[in-house]
Amino acid sequence: IDDLFKSLQLQRVVNMYQLSNRERGAWQDCGGGVHSGLVDDRHKVVVSRLPVGVSPSKMKNKLTLFFQRRQNAGGEVLDVKYPAAQPDQAWVLFRHQRDAEHVLRHPVRVITINEQQFPIQLKSFEDMEVRGGQIRIALHRFFTHSFCTGLHYSKNLLLSILSLEGCSFSSTDVLEAVQSCRDLPSALKYLCHDCPICQEQISFNRMVTMTHCSCTFCESCFKKYFSSVIKEKNIVHAVCPLCNLPDVQRGRREESMEYFSLLDTQIRYYLDPQIHELFQRKLRDQALQEMPNFRWCAHCCFGLLHEADRLRMDCPSCGKSTCFQCKRPWAPQHEGISCEKFKEWEQLNSPEYQNSRLEQLLSRNKIDCPKCKFRFFLARGGCLHFKCTQCQHEFCGGCSQPFKQGSACSFSTECGAKGLHAHHPRNCLYHLRDWSHKQEATIIPCICGVMEFQESGAVKEEPCGRPALPDYSGYCTVHYKECLVELINNNALDPVVLLDGVELRAEMDRWKVPVPDKQPLEPDQRYEDRLRQVSR
Fold this sequence. Notes:
Keywords: Metal-binding, Repeat, Transferase, Ubl conjugation pathway, Zinc, Zinc-finger. Residues 191-427, 195-244 form the RING-type domain. By secondary structure, the chain is an alpha+beta fold. Helix content is 37%, strand content 14%. It has 18 helices and 21 strands. Strands 2-3-1-5-4 form a 5-stranded antiparallel sheet. A hairpin with a 6-residue loop joins β6 (193-194) and β7 (201-202). α6 (125-149) packs antiparallel against α7, α7 packs across α8 and α8 packs across α9 (184-191). The relative contact order is 0.04.
């Protein structure tokens, strides 16, 4: 390789980035009597941006005193070489490596020379050695690859990039840039891609392009994002972090399968085998859940395809049974009756049912997703907007009506100007929670003890703590209303009988029902009754 350098006159370039044996000997002999075996390059710090024209002896004394002061986090200085490789540079040698490391923690300093303050910059001396080594490695790889494969790339382009001031590109990235580009601007563009997530400058070969949307971000962000999603979330969240595409829930099944097939290739290449295995397992479970006759066992983590024409589903793993429709553990009393009738029987025959009816309604109530029928425990104290963690369906926890975004709702043309919204029926808690009580009651020193989440994001339930009214069986107004609304819904009652004329017209206008005009001399009560008939 030396003969090759001589023929191309590149030896001078390499010499600019490495220390010769004479320079190393001069450094060791410049003072202090330090043997070469006692210190190495890790003890040295490069000081840049020093004022030019100061006598070497004065500068050495200044730097020695400056870096030996305790307030500058320095230590014992063995020697100072000034000027060094550049007129504004000095090399400071510390006795202990830890002193050099402490000094480098604050790379920008201010030093006073001749009653003037100068900002100086500190760098590790090893960086200069690494820099020269990078160029030698890059040149070796470049010429070896070029002559072995018969390719002829521009050596000047390679040296131009490596010789740039402040260049921090790796030799591998620079070599790939030279092989892919024909001029310096295009090579620098290849090496300087901004990641839109971490805002770091990354070489093009370290950027990852999503297969569906063509969004691009760095390899490190790809690994962190998809590792977190695969470990902590449902597989439907494994979409592009920039544009949230594709829409796996609302999109075509064929499109989703193609996307996950291509994503599987990327995850297998970039992520650990354990994460790739977890990804495939979650992808399999998601595909099974979309099958109409697949159910999870209510007793263990086993799932099965139920083909028999009956509600009872026997698990081959644990040997226990589950109801195929309501997904509850099977009981002998369920045989021959519907899930609704079995639920009523279970409630009526529960030992605690007669004494704890209100607690059962107000504590942790079960709620089923209206789309995938997955069952959850709904804790009181939150908002009515509910998002299923399995199928991502958004619905109201009070009436199960879907939440939709703007124009995605086809109820009326006015929906296009709205954000995320739902069309709640009049018996939903969304409307009834604001009703005022006509009956006044005297507040007694009684506190509602219903357990709920007091704050958003809380992980522990606490007693409600609101004052309870005497006529509400020891419960506060909020939870008593929730109980009444649930009873109204369970008994299919219509609150339209309690709406006055203004509320009736507002209800009809909300559902885009034409409001009939009031006839001349028609009594208000008869007109309201007519509006109720139209609203039913």
